[in-house]
Amino acid sequence: MRLSVDHTTHYVFSGPVSRGMQRLRLMPKTSAGQRVLEWNMHFEGAQLQVEYDDANCNHVTLISFDPGVTEVTIRCEGVVDTSDECGVMGRHSGFMPLWQFVEQTDLTRAGARTRGLLAALPDEPNTLATLHGLSSLIRGRVEYAAGHTDSDTTAEGVLLAGRGVCQDHAHVFIGAARALGIPARYVSGYLMMDDRIDQDAGHAWAEAFVEGLGWVGFDISNGISPDARYVRVATGRDYRDAAPVTGIRYGARDESMHVKLAVQQQRVEQ
User: Where is the Transglutaminase-like domain (predicted)?
Assistant: First the structure.
């Protein structure tokens, strides 16, 4: 499947920004199940400073704001060929050792609610079946609903609220899998929706490492493993490692942000 992505983030600040920088993880890489044919990034009100690959092999772009700017626009557009690998990404790679993905983070750390969740997990014949069962259990316990959590909400907080979005589903799954001794990581990217082109935001899911298969994806929010409609962009121990945009600024107290995102299938000429 050939997917085109057009993703624009527009910031308006309450006053001039004297200094500001942003770290962007918005460029996908060719990997199992996807081949990046074209990807371009455009900036208004900011300048490219440096590009590098981080410890998780994510491509990172560092930009600085123009002095005194009151608006900044980041636009990414590209084309990616994808295939359905049944969620199987294969062997581990990158600079982070596999054991790092068994260690909990502040956002995934398992507590009493996670242990209660695992107590309800039925016995399964193998690790893969256990993980699918865990995904289903979380989907039943945590209703998909926006506006009840934010980027700092922990897995335990999500289970307490009983509501959340794709990021929250991923954190609960990762924390629970790690509590079982299974390496797990967070994935940010894009999903082509079947019923529309324009979307409110990007997507997030999780991957767990299964002996004999390698990394396997689980989209808890949709109850499936990622297929050809998905574009992987960044991975990490949790959202903070794979966040599309992080940054710092001085001079403006408040900001508003507007996101415009379109993901659609392109026709491939034979």
Answer: 158-222
Residues 6+ apart with CB under 8 A from 187: 170, 204, 205, 206, 207, 217, 232, 234, 235, 242
Whole-number Cα distances in Å, 241 to 162, 189, 236: 24, 13, 5
Q: Which of the four pLDDT bands, split at 50, 70 and 90, describes residue 253?
A: confident
Q: Mind listing the domains of the chain with CATH numbers? A: 2-82+245-266 (2.60.40.2250), 88-242 (3.10.620.30)
DSSP one-letter string for the chain:
-EEEEEEEEEEEEEEEESEEEEEEEEE---BTTEEEEEEEEEEESEEEEEEEE-TT--EEEEEEEPTTEEEEEEEEEEEEEE---TTEEES--SSS-GGGGTS--TTT---HHHHHHHHTPPP-SSHHHHHHHHHHHHHHHSEE-TTS--TT--HHHHHHHTEE-HHHHHHHHHHHHHHTT--EEEEEEEE--SS-SEESS-EEEEEEEETTTEEEEEBTTTTB---TTEEEEEEESSHHHH-SEEEEEES-S-EEEEEEEEEEEEPPP-
Q: How confident is the model at residue 270 (pLDDT cuts 50, 70, 90)?
A: low
Both structure tokens of 229: 């409609």
